[in-house]
Protein backbone atom coordinates (compact mmCIF):
# COMPACT_ATOMS: atom_id res chain seq x y z
CA UNK A 1 0.00 0.00 0.00
CA UNK A 2 2.68 2.49 1.04
CA UNK A 3 4.80 1.39 -1.84
CA UNK A 4 1.95 2.32 -4.18
CA UNK A 5 1.82 5.82 -2.68
CA UNK A 6 5.59 6.21 -2.78
CA UNK A 7 5.67 5.38 -6.45
CA UNK A 8 3.16 8.16 -7.13
CA UNK A 9 5.86 10.63 -6.14
CA UNK A 10 7.62 9.90 -9.40
CA UNK A 11 6.36 12.24 -12.15
CA UNK A 12 6.30 9.69 -15.01
CA UNK A 13 4.52 7.18 -12.81
CA UNK A 14 1.92 9.71 -11.68
CA UNK A 15 1.54 10.81 -15.30
CA UNK A 16 0.67 7.26 -16.34
CA UNK A 17 -1.48 6.57 -13.26
CA UNK A 18 -3.50 9.74 -13.86
CA UNK A 19 -3.98 8.70 -17.48
CA UNK A 20 -5.28 5.32 -16.32
CA UNK A 21 -7.67 6.81 -13.75
CA UNK A 22 -9.04 9.73 -15.79
CA UNK A 23 -11.42 7.76 -18.09
CA UNK A 24 -12.85 5.75 -15.18
CA UNK A 25 -13.52 8.91 -13.19
CA UNK A 26 -15.05 10.55 -16.24
CA UNK A 27 -17.23 7.51 -16.96
CA UNK A 28 -18.46 7.29 -13.35
CA UNK A 29 -19.07 11.05 -13.30
CA UNK A 30 -21.14 10.90 -16.48
CA UNK A 31 -23.24 8.02 -15.11
CA UNK A 32 -23.78 9.53 -11.67
CA UNK A 33 -24.43 13.09 -12.84
CA UNK A 34 -26.71 11.78 -15.60
CA UNK A 35 -28.77 9.78 -13.13
CA UNK A 36 -28.74 12.58 -10.53
CA UNK A 37 -29.86 15.22 -13.03
CA UNK A 38 -32.74 13.16 -14.43
CA UNK A 39 -33.91 11.84 -11.08
CA UNK A 40 -33.36 15.11 -9.23
CA UNK A 41 -34.78 17.50 -11.81
CA UNK A 42 -37.62 15.35 -13.12
CA UNK A 43 -38.68 12.59 -10.77
CA UNK A 44 -37.96 13.90 -7.26
CA UNK A 45 -41.09 15.43 -5.67
CA UNK A 46 -41.20 19.23 -5.32
CA UNK A 47 -40.42 20.58 -1.86
CA UNK A 48 -43.49 21.41 0.24
CA UNK A 49 -42.11 24.88 1.02
CA UNK A 50 -39.82 25.77 -1.83
CA UNK A 51 -41.61 24.05 -4.69
CA UNK A 52 -39.44 23.32 -7.68
CA UNK A 53 -36.87 25.97 -6.75
CA UNK A 54 -35.24 23.58 -4.30
CA UNK A 55 -33.92 21.57 -7.25
CA UNK A 56 -30.95 23.89 -7.59
CA UNK A 57 -29.58 22.10 -4.52
CA UNK A 58 -28.54 19.30 -6.91
CA UNK A 59 -25.93 21.64 -8.36
CA UNK A 60 -25.41 24.02 -5.47
CA UNK A 61 -24.65 21.61 -2.62
CA UNK A 62 -22.18 19.46 -4.58
CA UNK A 63 -20.43 22.63 -5.84
CA UNK A 64 -20.12 23.99 -2.32
CA UNK A 65 -18.86 20.66 -1.07
CA UNK A 66 -16.32 20.48 -3.89
CA UNK A 67 -15.16 24.04 -3.21
CA UNK A 68 -14.04 22.87 0.24
CA UNK A 69 -12.82 19.51 -1.01
CA UNK A 70 -10.81 21.21 -3.75
CA UNK A 71 -9.20 23.58 -1.26
CA UNK A 72 -8.40 20.68 1.06
CA UNK A 73 -6.86 18.74 -1.81
CA UNK A 74 -4.78 21.76 -2.74
CA UNK A 75 -3.64 22.42 0.83
CA UNK A 76 -2.85 18.77 1.58
CA UNK A 77 -0.96 18.31 -1.69
CA UNK A 78 0.98 21.50 -0.97
CA UNK A 79 1.74 20.35 2.58
CA UNK A 80 2.94 16.95 1.37
CA UNK A 81 5.16 18.68 -1.17
CA UNK A 82 6.57 21.13 1.38
CA UNK A 83 7.15 18.63 4.17
CA UNK A 84 8.48 15.61 2.29
CA UNK A 85 9.81 17.61 -0.67
CA UNK A 86 7.72 15.61 -3.10
CA UNK A 87 7.62 17.81 -6.17
CA UNK A 88 4.56 16.31 -7.84
CA UNK A 89 2.59 17.60 -4.83
CA UNK A 90 3.03 21.11 -6.26
CA UNK A 91 1.74 19.89 -9.61
CA UNK A 92 -1.36 18.48 -7.91
CA UNK A 93 -1.87 21.68 -5.90
CA UNK A 94 -1.46 23.84 -9.00
CA UNK A 95 -3.89 21.62 -10.91
CA UNK A 96 -6.50 21.63 -8.14
CA UNK A 97 -6.57 25.39 -7.46
CA UNK A 98 -8.46 26.69 -10.54
CA UNK A 99 -10.90 23.76 -10.41
CA UNK A 100 -11.70 24.44 -6.77
CA UNK A 101 -12.06 28.15 -7.49
CA UNK A 102 -14.54 27.37 -10.29
CA UNK A 103 -16.62 25.21 -7.94
CA UNK A 104 -16.58 28.03 -5.39
CA UNK A 105 -17.81 30.46 -8.03
CA UNK A 106 -20.47 27.98 -9.13
CA UNK A 107 -21.65 27.52 -5.52
CA UNK A 108 -21.87 31.31 -5.07
CA UNK A 109 -23.71 31.86 -8.37
CA UNK A 110 -26.23 29.02 -7.93
CA UNK A 111 -26.77 30.05 -4.32
CA UNK A 112 -27.53 33.63 -5.24
CA UNK A 113 -29.88 32.54 -8.06
CA UNK A 114 -31.73 30.44 -5.50
CA UNK A 115 -31.64 33.22 -2.93
CA UNK A 116 -33.53 35.65 -5.18
CA UNK A 117 -36.90 33.81 -5.08
CA UNK A 118 -36.39 32.31 -1.60
CA UNK A 119 -34.80 35.07 0.46
CA UNK A 120 -35.87 37.92 -1.79
CA UNK A 121 -32.28 38.91 -2.45
CA UNK A 122 -29.36 37.75 -4.54
CA UNK A 123 -26.86 38.28 -1.78
CA UNK A 124 -26.94 38.52 2.00
CA UNK A 125 -24.01 39.27 4.27
CA UNK A 126 -24.46 36.06 6.10
CA UNK A 127 -21.60 34.04 7.71
CA UNK A 128 -21.91 31.12 5.32
CA UNK A 129 -22.00 33.29 2.23
CA UNK A 130 -19.26 35.60 3.42
CA UNK A 131 -16.90 32.78 4.38
CA UNK A 132 -17.50 31.13 1.00
CA UNK A 133 -16.65 34.43 -0.69
CA UNK A 134 -13.47 34.64 1.41
CA UNK A 135 -12.67 31.12 0.21
CA UNK A 136 -12.87 32.39 -3.36
CA UNK A 137 -10.50 35.27 -2.51
CA UNK A 138 -8.10 32.81 -0.89
CA UNK A 139 -8.11 30.76 -4.08
CA UNK A 140 -7.31 33.92 -6.04
CA UNK A 141 -4.47 34.73 -3.64
CA UNK A 142 -2.95 31.25 -3.95
CA UNK A 143 -3.26 31.22 -7.75
CA UNK A 144 -1.78 34.68 -8.25
CA UNK A 145 1.01 34.14 -5.73
CA UNK A 146 2.16 31.11 -7.69
CA UNK A 147 2.25 33.13 -10.89
CA UNK A 148 3.94 36.16 -9.31
CA UNK A 149 7.32 34.50 -8.93
CA UNK A 150 9.72 34.32 -11.83
CA UNK A 151 11.23 31.18 -10.32
CA UNK A 152 8.40 28.60 -10.55
CA UNK A 153 9.94 26.61 -7.73
CA UNK A 154 9.57 29.46 -5.25
CA UNK A 155 6.08 30.26 -6.50
CA UNK A 156 5.07 26.67 -5.84
CA UNK A 157 6.40 26.67 -2.32
CA UNK A 158 5.08 30.11 -1.42
CA UNK A 159 1.58 29.32 -2.69
CA UNK A 160 1.63 25.94 -0.91
CA UNK A 161 2.39 27.74 2.35
CA UNK A 162 -0.37 30.28 1.73
CA UNK A 163 -2.75 27.42 0.99
CA UNK A 164 -1.94 25.86 4.35
CA UNK A 165 -2.36 29.19 6.18
CA UNK A 166 -5.67 29.84 4.44
CA UNK A 167 -6.92 26.39 5.38
CA UNK A 168 -8.22 27.86 8.68
CA UNK A 169 -11.13 29.18 6.63
CA UNK A 170 -12.33 25.71 5.56
CA UNK A 171 -13.78 24.63 8.94
CA UNK A 172 -15.24 28.13 9.29
CA UNK A 173 -17.18 27.71 6.03
CA UNK A 174 -18.28 24.23 6.98
CA UNK A 175 -19.46 24.98 10.51
CA UNK A 176 -20.65 28.56 9.98
CA UNK A 177 -24.29 27.47 9.80
CA UNK A 178 -24.01 25.83 13.21
CA UNK A 179 -21.87 28.46 14.95
CA UNK A 180 -23.87 31.50 13.98
CA UNK A 181 -27.54 32.17 13.44
CA UNK A 182 -27.24 31.95 9.74
CA UNK A 183 -29.82 32.80 7.12
CA UNK A 184 -28.44 29.83 5.22
CA UNK A 185 -30.18 26.59 6.15
CA UNK A 186 -28.29 23.94 8.09
CA UNK A 187 -26.86 20.78 6.61
CA UNK A 188 -29.32 18.07 5.66
CA UNK A 189 -27.04 15.29 4.49
CA UNK A 190 -23.73 15.41 6.33
CA UNK A 191 -24.97 14.90 9.84
CA UNK A 192 -25.11 12.22 12.50
CA UNK A 193 -28.20 10.06 12.49
CA UNK A 194 -30.89 10.10 9.85
CA UNK A 195 -30.64 12.69 7.07
CA UNK A 196 -33.47 15.21 7.06
CA UNK A 197 -34.60 14.35 3.58
CA UNK A 198 -36.82 11.68 2.05
CA UNK A 199 -35.03 9.08 -0.04
CA UNK A 200 -36.61 10.26 -3.28
CA UNK A 201 -34.84 13.62 -2.87
CA UNK A 202 -31.75 12.26 -1.13
CA UNK A 203 -30.59 9.63 -3.62
CA UNK A 204 -30.20 11.99 -6.57
CA UNK A 205 -28.36 14.43 -4.28
CA UNK A 206 -25.94 11.76 -3.12
CA UNK A 207 -25.47 10.67 -6.73
CA UNK A 208 -24.72 14.25 -7.76
CA UNK A 209 -22.27 14.58 -4.88
CA UNK A 210 -20.44 11.41 -5.89
CA UNK A 211 -20.67 12.43 -9.53
CA UNK A 212 -19.14 15.84 -8.83
CA UNK A 213 -16.36 14.13 -6.86
CA UNK A 214 -15.65 11.86 -9.82
CA UNK A 215 -15.78 14.84 -12.17
CA UNK A 216 -13.28 16.64 -9.96
CA UNK A 217 -11.11 13.51 -10.00
CA UNK A 218 -11.25 13.30 -13.78
CA UNK A 219 -10.45 16.98 -14.32
CA UNK A 220 -7.70 16.81 -11.73
CA UNK A 221 -6.14 13.80 -13.48
CA UNK A 222 -6.14 15.58 -16.84
CA UNK A 223 -4.80 18.83 -15.36
CA UNK A 224 -2.12 17.05 -13.32
CA UNK A 225 -0.91 15.40 -16.51
CA UNK A 226 -0.66 18.79 -18.17
CA UNK A 227 1.15 20.28 -15.18
CA UNK A 228 3.63 17.40 -15.08
CA UNK A 229 4.31 17.67 -18.80
CA UNK A 230 5.01 21.40 -18.61
CA UNK A 231 7.07 21.09 -15.42
CA UNK A 232 9.17 18.19 -16.67
CA UNK A 233 9.51 19.46 -20.22
CA UNK A 234 13.30 19.36 -20.00
CA UNK A 235 13.42 15.67 -19.11
CA UNK A 236 13.97 12.91 -21.63
CA UNK A 237 10.86 10.91 -20.78
CA UNK A 238 8.60 13.86 -21.58
CA UNK A 239 10.36 14.33 -24.93
CA UNK A 240 9.78 10.66 -25.66
CA UNK A 241 6.11 10.94 -24.67
CA UNK A 242 5.57 14.06 -26.74
CA UNK A 243 7.41 12.87 -29.84
CA UNK A 244 5.77 9.43 -29.72
CA UNK B 1 33.11 39.54 15.04
CA UNK B 2 34.49 36.68 17.13
CA UNK B 3 32.54 33.51 17.88
CA UNK B 4 32.05 34.45 21.52
CA UNK B 5 30.38 37.69 20.53
CA UNK B 6 27.97 36.11 18.05
CA UNK B 7 26.50 33.72 20.61
CA UNK B 8 24.31 36.10 22.59
CA UNK B 9 21.44 33.86 23.63
CA UNK B 10 17.84 33.91 22.46
CA UNK B 11 16.33 36.69 24.57
CA UNK B 12 19.25 39.03 24.10
CA UNK B 13 19.17 38.29 20.37
CA UNK B 14 15.50 39.22 20.22
CA UNK B 15 16.25 42.35 22.28
CA UNK B 16 19.06 43.39 19.93
CA UNK B 17 16.94 42.99 16.81
CA UNK B 18 14.04 44.79 18.50
CA UNK B 19 16.27 47.72 19.52
CA UNK B 20 17.76 47.92 16.04
CA UNK B 21 14.35 47.90 14.39
CA UNK B 22 13.01 50.59 16.72
CA UNK B 23 16.06 52.76 16.14
CA UNK B 24 15.71 52.35 12.38
CA UNK B 25 12.00 53.05 12.63
CA UNK B 26 12.49 56.34 14.43
CA UNK B 27 15.26 57.37 12.08
CA UNK B 28 12.81 57.27 9.20
CA UNK B 29 10.01 59.39 10.62
CA UNK B 30 8.37 59.84 7.22
CA UNK B 31 7.82 56.09 6.91
CA UNK B 32 6.35 56.15 10.37
CA UNK B 33 4.07 59.10 9.72
CA UNK B 34 2.80 58.28 6.25
CA UNK B 35 0.47 55.42 7.27
CA UNK B 36 -0.88 57.60 10.09
CA UNK B 37 -1.57 60.48 7.73
CA UNK B 38 -3.18 57.98 5.34
CA UNK B 39 -5.40 56.76 8.21
CA UNK B 40 -6.38 60.36 8.93
CA UNK B 41 -7.14 61.18 5.30
CA UNK B 42 -9.16 58.01 4.62
CA UNK B 43 -11.34 58.61 7.67
CA UNK B 44 -11.84 62.20 6.54
CA UNK B 45 -13.14 61.00 3.17
CA UNK B 46 -16.18 59.23 4.58
CA UNK B 47 -17.98 62.18 6.22
CA UNK B 48 -17.31 64.18 3.04
CA UNK B 49 -18.57 61.46 0.72
CA UNK B 50 -21.54 60.24 2.74
CA UNK B 51 -22.96 62.73 5.18
CA UNK B 52 -21.74 64.75 8.15
CA UNK B 53 -24.92 63.96 10.14
CA UNK B 54 -23.99 62.93 13.71
CA UNK B 55 -26.36 59.97 13.81
CA UNK B 56 -25.08 58.60 10.53
CA UNK B 57 -21.44 59.22 11.49
CA UNK B 58 -21.92 57.37 14.73
CA UNK B 59 -23.47 54.41 12.91
CA UNK B 60 -20.67 54.10 10.39
CA UNK B 61 -17.75 55.11 12.62
CA UNK B 62 -16.73 51.54 13.68
CA UNK B 63 -16.62 50.33 10.11
CA UNK B 64 -14.79 53.40 8.83
CA UNK B 65 -12.24 53.25 11.63
CA UNK B 66 -11.58 49.57 11.10
CA UNK B 67 -11.37 49.67 7.32
CA UNK B 68 -9.05 52.66 7.49
CA UNK B 69 -6.89 50.95 10.13
CA UNK B 70 -6.76 47.80 7.99
CA UNK B 71 -5.71 49.70 4.87
CA UNK B 72 -3.17 51.85 6.62
CA UNK B 73 -1.57 48.83 8.35
CA UNK B 74 -1.41 47.14 4.99
CA UNK B 75 0.40 50.16 3.61
CA UNK B 76 3.12 49.92 6.24
CA UNK B 77 3.27 46.13 6.05
CA UNK B 78 5.16 46.15 2.79
CA UNK B 79 8.15 47.80 4.46
CA UNK B 80 8.43 45.10 7.14
CA UNK B 81 11.12 43.02 5.42
CA UNK B 82 11.72 45.06 2.27
CA UNK B 83 14.69 47.23 3.25
CA UNK B 84 16.44 44.36 5.00
CA UNK B 85 15.86 42.04 2.06
CA UNK B 86 17.17 44.62 -0.42
CA UNK B 87 20.49 45.22 1.33
CA UNK B 88 21.00 41.59 2.36
CA UNK B 89 20.57 42.11 6.10
CA UNK B 90 17.70 39.67 6.14
CA UNK B 91 19.88 36.90 4.74
CA UNK B 92 22.49 37.58 7.39
CA UNK B 93 19.82 37.46 10.08
CA UNK B 94 18.51 34.20 8.66
CA UNK B 95 22.04 32.77 8.71
CA UNK B 96 22.68 33.88 12.29
CA UNK B 97 22.68 31.47 15.19
CA UNK B 98 19.27 32.72 16.35
CA UNK B 99 16.16 30.93 15.07
CA UNK B 100 14.49 32.83 12.24
CA UNK B 101 11.17 32.66 14.09
CA UNK B 102 12.60 34.66 16.98
CA UNK B 103 13.92 37.30 14.61
CA UNK B 104 10.52 37.51 12.94
CA UNK B 105 8.94 37.98 16.38
CA UNK B 106 11.32 40.84 17.19
CA UNK B 107 10.86 42.53 13.81
CA UNK B 108 7.09 42.21 13.86
CA UNK B 109 6.72 43.52 17.41
CA UNK B 110 9.00 46.45 16.62
CA UNK B 111 6.97 47.11 13.49
CA UNK B 112 3.74 46.97 15.49
CA UNK B 113 5.15 49.40 18.06
CA UNK B 114 6.02 52.02 15.46
CA UNK B 115 2.97 51.52 13.20
CA UNK B 116 0.10 49.69 14.95
CA UNK B 117 0.52 51.18 18.39
CA UNK B 118 0.91 54.64 16.90
CA UNK B 119 -2.31 54.12 14.98
CA UNK B 120 -4.09 52.98 18.14
CA UNK B 121 -2.79 56.04 19.99
CA UNK B 122 -4.11 58.32 17.26
CA UNK B 123 -7.50 56.62 16.91
CA UNK B 124 -9.32 58.51 19.73
CA UNK B 125 -8.74 61.71 17.79
CA UNK B 126 -10.25 60.28 14.63
CA UNK B 127 -13.04 58.57 16.58
CA UNK B 128 -14.03 61.81 18.26
CA UNK B 129 -14.11 63.52 14.88
CA UNK B 130 -16.54 60.77 13.78
CA UNK B 131 -18.61 61.61 16.90
CA UNK B 132 -17.95 58.34 18.72
CA UNK B 133 -19.08 58.91 22.33
CA UNK B 134 -16.24 58.93 24.94
CA UNK B 135 -17.62 55.88 26.77
CA UNK B 136 -16.95 53.72 23.67
CA UNK B 137 -13.32 54.81 23.41
CA UNK B 138 -11.79 52.20 25.82
CA UNK B 139 -13.44 49.35 23.88
CA UNK B 140 -12.37 50.84 20.59
CA UNK B 141 -8.78 51.21 21.81
CA UNK B 142 -8.71 47.62 23.11
CA UNK B 143 -10.21 46.22 19.90
CA UNK B 144 -7.81 48.20 17.70
CA UNK B 145 -4.81 47.22 19.84
CA UNK B 146 -5.67 43.50 19.60
CA UNK B 147 -6.63 43.86 15.96
CA UNK B 148 -3.53 45.69 14.76
CA UNK B 149 -1.27 43.20 16.54
CA UNK B 150 -3.13 40.30 14.88
CA UNK B 151 -2.87 42.14 11.61
CA UNK B 152 0.87 42.54 12.10
CA UNK B 153 1.27 38.77 12.34
CA UNK B 154 -0.91 38.19 9.28
CA UNK B 155 1.00 40.92 7.50
CA UNK B 156 4.30 39.30 8.47
CA UNK B 157 3.17 36.11 6.73
CA UNK B 158 2.09 38.07 3.66
CA UNK B 159 5.19 40.23 3.61
CA UNK B 160 7.34 37.13 4.02
CA UNK B 161 5.65 35.52 1.03
CA UNK B 162 5.92 38.56 -1.22
CA UNK B 163 9.24 40.06 -0.13
CA UNK B 164 11.17 38.99 -3.21
CA UNK B 165 8.58 40.24 -5.67
CA UNK B 166 8.84 43.43 -7.65
CA UNK B 167 5.14 44.23 -7.49
CA UNK B 168 4.44 42.68 -4.14
CA UNK B 169 2.19 45.41 -2.75
CA UNK B 170 -1.03 44.52 -4.52
CA UNK B 171 -0.45 40.83 -4.00
CA UNK B 172 0.17 41.47 -0.31
CA UNK B 173 -3.29 43.03 -0.05
CA UNK B 174 -4.82 40.15 -1.97
CA UNK B 175 -3.24 37.69 0.47
CA UNK B 176 -3.75 39.51 3.76
CA UNK B 177 -7.20 41.06 3.33
CA UNK B 178 -9.20 37.79 3.09
CA UNK B 179 -7.40 36.49 6.16
CA UNK B 180 -8.11 39.76 7.98
CA UNK B 181 -11.85 39.74 7.35
CA UNK B 182 -12.79 37.93 10.59
CA UNK B 183 -10.80 40.60 12.39
CA UNK B 184 -12.79 43.35 10.74
CA UNK B 185 -16.09 41.66 11.63
CA UNK B 186 -15.33 41.23 15.33
CA UNK B 187 -13.44 44.51 15.73
CA UNK B 188 -16.16 46.60 14.14
CA UNK B 189 -18.89 44.77 16.04
CA UNK B 190 -17.11 45.32 19.40
CA UNK B 191 -16.83 49.04 18.69
CA UNK B 192 -20.38 49.17 17.40
CA UNK B 193 -21.73 47.51 20.55
CA UNK B 194 -19.78 49.88 22.78
CA UNK B 195 -21.21 52.87 20.91
CA UNK B 196 -24.70 51.45 21.29
CA UNK B 197 -24.15 50.98 25.02
CA UNK B 198 -24.16 47.18 24.86
CA UNK B 199 -21.63 44.76 26.32
CA UNK B 200 -18.80 44.24 23.81
CA UNK B 201 -17.08 41.42 25.76
CA UNK B 202 -17.99 38.61 23.34
CA UNK B 203 -16.45 40.24 20.30
CA UNK B 204 -13.42 41.37 22.31
CA UNK B 205 -12.83 37.81 23.52
CA UNK B 206 -12.95 36.65 19.92
CA UNK B 207 -10.39 39.30 18.96
CA UNK B 208 -8.18 38.25 21.85
CA UNK B 209 -8.46 34.61 20.76
CA UNK B 210 -7.49 35.55 17.20
CA UNK B 211 -4.58 37.57 18.58
CA UNK B 212 -3.29 34.64 20.67
CA UNK B 213 -3.76 32.25 17.77
CA UNK B 214 -1.84 34.39 15.29
CA UNK B 215 0.82 35.31 17.84
CA UNK B 216 1.56 31.64 18.46
CA UNK B 217 1.45 30.36 14.88
CA UNK B 218 2.18 33.54 12.90
CA UNK B 219 5.94 33.62 13.57
CA UNK B 220 6.27 30.00 12.44
CA UNK B 221 4.37 30.62 9.22
CA UNK B 222 6.17 33.91 8.55
CA UNK B 223 9.62 32.39 9.07
CA UNK B 224 8.67 29.46 6.80
CA UNK B 225 7.57 32.03 4.21
CA UNK B 226 10.87 33.92 4.52
CA UNK B 227 12.87 30.72 4.11
CA UNK B 228 11.02 30.06 0.85
CA UNK B 229 11.49 33.53 -0.59
CA UNK B 230 15.04 34.06 0.62
CA UNK B 231 16.72 30.93 -0.60
Care to describe what's here?
The complex is a heterodimer of chains A (244) and B (231). Chain A contains nine helices and no strands. Chain A is mostly helical and 244 residues long. Chain A is globular and about 60 Å long. Chain B has helices at 3-6, 10-27, 29-49, 54-77, 79-86, 89-95, 100-129, 137-162, 168-195, 201-230. Helices cover 85% and strands 0% of the residues of chain B. The longest helix of chain B has 30 residues, at 100-129. Chains A and B meet through helix 5 and helix 6 of A and helix 8, helix 9 and helix 10 of B.
Which properties best describe this structure?
heterodimer; A: mainly alpha; 77% helix; 0% strand; B: 10 helices
**Secondary structure tally, helices of chain B:** 10
The whole-number mean of residue pLDDT values of chain A reads 87
Helix proportion of chain A:
over 70%
First and last CA, distance of chain A: 32 Å
* Count of domains of chain A: 1
Per the principal axes of the C-alpha atoms, what is the gross shape of chain B?
elongated
What is the N-to-C order of secondary-structure elements of chain A (H for helix, E for strand)? HHHHHHHHH
Alpha-carbon distance between the termini of chain B?
Answer: 24 Å
> What is the helical fraction of chain B, as a range of percent?
over 70%
Class computed from helices, strands and strand pairing of chain A? mainly alpha
The chain-level mean pLDDT of chain B equals 88
Could you tell me the radius of gyration of chain B in angstroms?
A: 19 Å
Radius of gyration of chain A: 20 Å
For the largest interface, the chains and their residue counts are:
A-B, 20 and 21 residues
Q: What fraction strand of chain A?
A: under 5%
Q: Approximately how much beta-strand content do the residues of chain B carry?
A: under 5%
Shape of chain A: globular
Pairing-aware structural class of the strands and helices of chain B?
mainly alpha
Characterize the main sheet of chain A.
none
